[in-house]
């Protein structure tokens, strides 16, 4: 397939993603209000899972093909992109208000899950345990168990819809339809983008790891990006924050857990720089929320996150 045709498919995929994001935000916020569940929890679970579906498909496909670099690189790159690029850009568009629960529970959980991934995935390099870095089937099952506990905890402590501005007057049925159609648009558009972008990257002769951590990670993060930007524009910062934090947890616990159960994951393609940036992205987010007495991620902090993402991409391109 020619590069020109792939570019047209990219544009079509992006258009579908933007439309799907608009429907998803309207439907999810409507369900949150009618069900008495906070928009943050809806973003953390329903929206977070929905926008993580492309990562799930890509990583499981890589696992079935025996390509750990695709499975792991996709998740690591997506989580870096979620925190640095997506949250950064969203905060630049509109500062994100955070709650005490976000500050003392949700963001620390993100940090815990990230550290868990690094220690278990890079066990030989960091801890000197085992002969090589990787996640076994048993460790994959452990990730899935932690994920189940996490989801139960979210819904048990997620009641109480907050005031997030005026919503369109949709019935519960129409809200659910918007969510389903929105997720369909996001996933379908994301798949079009990923397929065409991967074809272009292969034509340029770059490595599987580079494709996974940049093209695939960026492409499969487009649903989160579109959803968060639309949510920020609609003054629904909690839904945007929940989407990113939820997607990060889903990516590590559910997606890598499922992938490792399919086939043990070899982390030899990853290095300490990749994992260091992953950890640093969450630490920067924590620093932003705990610095001072303000309860928001402001535009300056958003710009700092974006700058770190740009710096990481430059490092990747210079180390092809």
Structural summary, described in words:
With 320 residues, the chain is mostly helical. 79% of the residues lie in helices and 2% in strands. It is built from twelve helices and four strands. The strands form two sheets. The protein has a two-stranded antiparallel sheet. A two-stranded antiparallel ribbon has the order 2-3. Helix 1 (3-35) crosses helix 9 (222-233), helix 2 (39-64) packs parallel to helix 7 and helix 11 (272-290) runs antiparallel to helix 12. The longest helix is centred in the N-terminal third of the chain and has 33 residues, at 3-35. It is globular and about 55 Å long. The relative contact order is 0.25. The model is unreliable at 163-167 (pLDDT under 50).
Please supply descriptive tags for the structure shown above.
single chain; 320 residues; mainly alpha; two-stranded antiparallel ribbon; two-stranded antiparallel sheet; 12 helices
